[in-house]
Amino acid sequence: MKMDERYSNASYGSAGLAAFFASLSLQDWGFIIGVAFSIILGVLTYRLNKREQMKRTKILQDILNKTDS
């Protein structure tokens, strides 16, 4: 592979990627942003719920240990 072919492939690839994103309508962009936002909120909700459950489990474990003593 020559050096010119590598740059040619990179320029064709970036042009193709730019053409793909340019072909998306406003509705498509809204959908993509909405899906990304929903995924982010879902992950954050999962992490928050897991942290709260760990706190609750630790509190209950401490109470159980105090009553056993």
Automatic annotation (TrEMBL):
Official protein name in the record: Holin
Keywords: Membrane, Transmembrane, Transmembrane helix
Residue ranges crossing the lipid bilayer per the database entry: 7-24, 30-48
Species this protein is from: Salmonella enterica subsp. enterica serovar Lubbock
